[in-house]
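User: Hi! I'm working on a homework problem where we have to compare a predicted structure to a textbook description. Could you give me the structure for the chain below?
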Amino acid sequence: MKGGGAVAVKLTQRIVDELRSDDPRGKKVYDSLLPGFCVVAYASGKKSFLVRYGTRKRRTWLKVGPYGVLSVERARERARELLSKATLGQD
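Assistant: Happy to help. Predicted structure tokens:
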């Protein structure tokens, strides 16, 4: 389990398509295949992919891109690239 009681699942196109939120701050669902990678659904219907890295004291969020422009698979690849760059100090 992630902090805040969030459960990680394998993100698929179907899961992201069916994701809804009434919360204006959005609802995050984390990916079980890539730690820190998630999709957030907003009350407006917009969905975006994000990736988180760092420590609890210094956590950084990076926007991977919007759902629809990016598929789940491409967003996961892009998140992996961003995490690699961050690890190498290129963020």
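For your comparison, note the following. The mean pLDDT is 89. The chain has two helices and five strands. Good luck with the assignment!
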